Amino acid sequence: MCDSCGCTVSPGNRKHAYMPVAGTTAVTVLKNLLAENDHAAAHNRAHFDRHGVLAVNLMSAPGSGKTALLEATIDALGQEFRIGVIEGDLETENDAARIRAKGVPAWQITTGTSCHLDAHMVHAALHAFPLAGLDILFIENVGNLVCPASFDLGQHRNVVLLSVPEGDDKPAKYPVMFRAAHLVLLTKSDLLPLLEDFDPVRAEAHLRDLASSVPLMTLSARTGEGLAAWCDWLRRELATHRARLGMAHAVAGCGVALAE
Ligand SMILES: Nc1nc2c(ncn2[C@@H]2O[C@H](COP(=O)(O)OP(=O)(O)OP(=O)(O)O)[C@@H](O)[C@H]2O)c(=O)[nH]1
Ligand SMILES: [Zn+2]
Ligand SMILES: [Zn+2]
Ligand SMILES: [Zn+2]
After folding, report:
1. Are 54 and 237 in contact (CB under 8 A)?
2. Which residue of 66, 99, 145, 192 sits with most ligand 1 atoms within 8 Å of its CB, as the best mutation to test the pocket?
3. What is the pLDDT of residues 38-48, one digit of tens each?
């Protein structure tokens, strides 16, 4: 997370950023912000869980193919699951418009200057965007390999995309982001024959050097290569999530309430 560009301050948490705290050091303020963010994220998770929705946070560098992956996923799974999308970009409704063109509800968050989504922004979206009836909610985070990894949004799963033109050493350079991943996707695989210096074996070695054992899949939203494995992963995650919620509801009967 950057601690100097001010990107951690958004309308939802501004009051906490400027709240007087003992010893007003940058570290104290940041801890305060992240604690408030985690509180809001837990609340978002309660929203998702109450509706039985699996929330998947997509993170990557700008332009690595998040929206294209969502378009291809809607084509593949749109009849099987009810999908919703929250989009995060600094400006424009472009990505939300692309998703809506596929007949899927999409909510665009424009962050202005902030290079990541935070839990307060997602919470505001949740109160305007109906979760009822959805199976999977994708949250497309702002394109950035640094800050988004530090902000819990209340999602259940993090998916990190690494596109072939970016180079195979990204996991080594951006370890915080790749350590946060539950799944890594090597995207734009149709370009592999053109970009011979991208070695998928080396990319995986860099990922494993982080002591990460998460699955790594190679796919192309353009050709459809590898999409079946990604769709299977989503099916499994949704089933596991729903099974877990069944258990959570039993626990809720023992006094754990889901906050509004
Ligand atoms: N060759 C190829 N190009 C792709 C693929 N997926 C996306 N692209 C192209 O890459 C560019 C960026 O794709 P997007 O889906 O907009 O990327 P993004 O990650 O959503 O971008 P931001 O939201 O700006 O971070 C577009 O020109 C896409 O057509 C792919 O699988 N293969
Ligand atoms: Zn930043
Ligand atoms: Zn996008
Ligand atoms: Zn709420």
Report:
1. yes
2. 66
3. 999 999 999 99
The closest-lying atom of ligand 1 relative to the alpha carbon of residue 221 is 31
CA 185 vs. chain centroid, Å, equals 13
Is residue 185 within 8 A of residue 231, CB to CB? The reply is no
Report which of 68, 59, 230 is spatially closest to residue 140, judged by C-alpha positions: 59
**Residue 173, CB half-sphere, CA atoms under 13 Å: how many?**
11
Task: Compute, in angstroms, the gap from residue 78 CA to the centroid of ligand 2.
Answer: 34
The ligand that comes nearest to the alpha carbon of residue 113 is 2
The DSSP result for 176-204, as a single string, is: HHHHT-SEEEEE-GGGTTT-TT--HHHHH
CA 109 to centroid of ligand 4, rounded, Å: 17
Q: Whose CA is nearest to atom 5 of ligand 1?
A: 188
Task: Tell me the per-residue pLDDT of 47-90, one tens digit each, with 9 for 90 and over.
Answer: 999 999 999 999 999 999 999 999 999 999 999 999 999 999 99
* Angstrom distance (rounded) from CA 156 to CA 45: 8
